[in-house]
Design a protein that fits this description.
Number of strands: 4
Mean pLDDT: 95
Keywords: Chaperone, Copper, Cytoplasm, Metal-binding
Number of helices: 2
Radius of gyration: 11 Å
Protein name: Copper chaperone CopZ
Pfam family, one: HMA
Order of helices and strands: EHEEHE
Helix content: 25-40%
Structural class: alpha+beta
Domain HMA: 2-68
Shape: globular
Main location: cytoplasm
Strand order of the largest sheet: 2-3-1-4
Strand content: 25-35%
């Protein structure tokens, strides 16, 4: 398992947290997603043989948030 922390802009409420955690959490190979709303960070624990960082970033971007 690998863990990455992504800086994500545009998250401001509980709905944002649920949208990101739900979408990323559904990706095959993702074990855990934690959103730090105040810090604007998303920490993802995942299996890099099943899902790529690019796919994780695209999933967040598809929800309308900016991944830096």
């Amino acid at each position: 398992m690998e863990t990455i922390t992504l800086k994500v802009g545009g998250m401001s409420c509980g709905h944002c947290v649920k949208a990101v955690e739900g979408t990323v959490g559904e990706l095959k190979g993702v074990d855990k997603v934690t959103v730090d709303l105040e810090g604007g960070n998303v920490q993802v624990q995942f299996d890099s043989t099943s899902v790529s960082v690019k796919e994780i970033k695209e999933a967040i971007d598809d929800q309308g948030y900016d991944v830096e």
